[in-house]
Amino acid sequence: MASLGGNIAPSESVISPQVFVSGLAGVVFFTLGFYQLSTKPSQGPQDGGNDEPGIIKSILLFCYSCFLKPHSRAARGGQQGALESFYAGQAGVYDATRKTLLKGREDMLALAAAQLRLKAEKEDAGAGKKRIWVDVGGGTGWNIEAMSEFVNVPEFFSSVYLVDLSPSLCEVARRRFARLGWTNVQVICEDARKFRLEDYGNGLSGRRKSSTRSPTSYFEPRPDHGGADLITMSYSLSMIPDYYSVVDSLSSLLAPHGVIGVVDFYAQSKVDFSFRNHTGGLVGRHVNYLARTFWRAWFDLDRVSLEPGRRDYLEYRLGTVLTANLRNKALGSIPYYIWLGCHKKPFSSSSLPHEIIERIDALATESPYLVPSNKPKGPDALTRAVERTAPELRSKAFDAAVGNLSANLPLPSFFYQNHHWRIYYDDQLEKHTQFNDEYIYAFTWEDSKVDASLLKLGADDVVLAITSAGDNILSYAMQSPARIHAIDLNPSQNHLLELKVASFAALPYEDFWKIFGEGKHLEFRSLLLSKLSPHLSSRAFQYWLDNAAIFTNPRGRGLYDTGGSKHAIRVFRWVSRLFGCRKAVDELLAAETLAEQRQIWHSKIRPALLSPLVSSLVVSSEAFLWAALGVPKNQLAMIEADHAASRAVTGPTPTATNTRSHAIWRYMVDTLDPVIETTHIATDNPYYHVCLTGAFSPRCHPDYLSREAHAILSKPGALDGLRIHTDEIDEVIARIAPGTLTVAIVMDSMDWFPPTTPTTTEKNTKNNSNPNPATAQVRKLNRALRMGGRVLLRSAARKPWYLREFEAHGFATRCAGDRGSGQAGNGGDGGKCIDRVNMYASCWVCEKVANLPPPTPGLGAAEEHAGLSLEGGDEGADLLRL
Ligand SMILES: C[S@@+](CC[C@H](N)C(=O)[O-])C[C@H]1O[C@@H](n2cnc3c(N)ncnc32)[C@H](O)[C@@H]1O
């Protein structure tokens, strides 16, 4: 591919297959490019000068320079000669011809600007801050002008340095900044490998201000960090022959908390990166064999190098904050990536990476983070103390970080995030990939009001709960407990919670409402890049970038038509259409009173929806129950067992047979009838409202979507106590400090376990053996909970078998809701609505009343360590806040 230019293709006397393929592709490329240029209106910054050439002239020049012009000065002028030979003739049309080709530049700038703006907010509105930006291989300065879409460049940056080796492009850049009147931008025509800020009076502690460097200064060691708050490289890394040298120099240019933004072409196979955990996620990174071979050969012609080493080395030398793998669809799907990075070694107050790891480990495990009281002794005391205090309690994040440090690799990207909400996990494990990057629940099916009244959370509570769609986690957060550990095995459920949390942090209520209330926001992609991205982990960012169309597709049905639960909504939609009751659904939603609602339900909707036909054909199928409602087979067995034992089957005058379809039909009736009888869907039942309409409404929505909730949860630090774990509950509680949790909300997750029998429970309790996962989980819960701590659970069974396990392992159980079964007074005791979802047959609170042997250690052991304190002065307070 010749359009980037820069280096010279050797003259070929024979047409090699590589040249032939590339030539062919050139024609395709040219045609597509021409089409783009001639159909798209000009966007973004203008050309450097005022004499912008016409489209035809630009294209002709572009083609001549790229495909025909002999590159004569390469051998004589080194790299600069090569660049000049290529760019001199086309510098004036460079910008016009690169808009389509150099894709993602604005996105990278938006991401970098978002990070800088967040840092500026933290630095007290950035008052008086001297901010420096170095654009390496900056060409014509297009990026610097384009940045003005995101920040006011002349005001936000005190100095901007454009460093480029091509005099012709530098000249265009100079004209651009003269036209704009931006006096804070300096165009430096220099080899990026040699550029040093101190040569321009912006080094560390003003070391050198002269523009001439003494030869001996090159013997001085390069500093660990420099003064640039932002360094960008857009499509230049792939062009600089000695990329090691330029990547190495980035650390000594970058300020301690500075950001690096890179956008460039790449071609990598999964063999290159599969076993790395520091790359910030791998979504869409693999490029297939044909595309890899083709694009490498094509770009090779101009010595624009797509070999994996460039990106790999960048990721090896620096820390990854965010990354995304994309394709330039307008030009044959050329693979390109956007990457945001920072220093590999985090700069904490003591600049010791292991201190940061210890701190994040403490966040995940509820272990106290111990700050040495005697600061000069520093980290050694800290390390010893942490090891003495809880040698066995290490999060998986800690293990991964230590593994990386010992191999001299950067930390996993979670450690470089602005927030430590999301805890590191290994996304390549089958237990996570089994979900195929799809969440099941787009909204949470548990009544948050009932949870609130049962739990009455206070400021001392340390809560562990299943994430699901995150709605209830946010309702708990509104009650301001000390900590919430949200857990889900499905990474995408946690991505959804992260998106909600980031939206609280970054968006005004109106945008928040559109995204999660209406489920659609046409500007979602740009909000994601320019506002939400600094609050997301790299993996959540990639996920939402990949799935932005959920919110932005004008013809799509939005967020609530996604995930496994969409199948339930769709079946309802089809059934209501099939039975001609769509209009009745609208009437139900408009019903002003419960009486009106009941009448519409019984006369028009119930006969269709609860017809035995629907139940036996659709709803009772195991595949549907799993895909749409997340009902696993053990839970299904509980429903069937309750049905088999019910009076409807065993009573003197049976009204149902002992079959799966009857069991499911009965279960649906027991769920839905009481809901319609007792809750007003249009105003007070968001769970069914969203199923019927595909959206929430201003008068009917979950608590977390209210304006008041937004006011509470968008306050700075409001969600600092949140930890999002991607793992099994079991794995997380096994690593939580004993005796620290006060509440565990496990929803219906224990229904998923294979059941025990009374005999095995008794035997296992006596032997203290551990054959059943439910038993193991109950024991771990006992250990993690404080005395008096509670487990809140729901079950599809009226009395789930595992209550026996709780009772045998130090818990007292109490039924907090039993909806019964069958029609009351007609052989049954049903008809009760235990919450607005009423989806589960029962709800239980299990209170810890006894410790299991070995006894749960009391809190406070950590504080007893000599020479250590939890508070550790200002620094301690700061760390503990995290
Ligand atoms: C494809 S252009 C990208 C220009 C600009 N960043 C943009 O996005 O429009 C690559 C740039 O890298 C510059 N370049 C290549 N090698 C360089 C080096 N050793 N030092 C400085 N700049 C270099 C070229 O002159 C060219 O301007």
How is this structure best described in words?
The chain is of the alpha/beta class and 882 residues long. The chain has 6 domains: 17-94, no CATH class; 102-343, Vaccinia Virus protein VP39 (Rossmann fold); 353-416 and 863-881, no CATH class; 430-519 and 521-555 and 699-723, no CATH class; 566-693, no CATH class; 728-851, no CATH class. 44% of the residues lie in helices and 12% in strands. The protein is built from 39 helices and 16 strands. The strands form 3 sheets. Strands 3-2-1-4-5-7-6 form a 7-stranded mixed β-sheet. It has a 7-stranded mixed β-sheet with strand order 11-10-9-12-13-15-14. The protein has a two-stranded antiparallel sheet with strand order 8-16. Helix 9 links the parallel strand 4 (228-234) and strand 5. Helix 5 (105-122) crosses helix 21 and helix 19 (491-506) packs across helix 22 (538-546). The longest helix is centred in the N-terminal third of the chain and has 23 residues, at 17-39. The two termini are 49 Å apart. The model is unreliable at 1-20, 37-42, 204-208, 370-391 and 856-882 (pLDDT under 50). The structure holds S-adenosylmethionine (SAM). S-adenosylmethionine binds next to helix 3, helix 6 and strand 2.
Structure at a glance:
This protein has six domains: 78 residues, no CATH class; 242 residues, Vaccinia Virus protein VP39 (Rossmann fold); 83 residues, no CATH class; 150 residues, no CATH class; 128 residues, no CATH class; 124 residues, no CATH class.
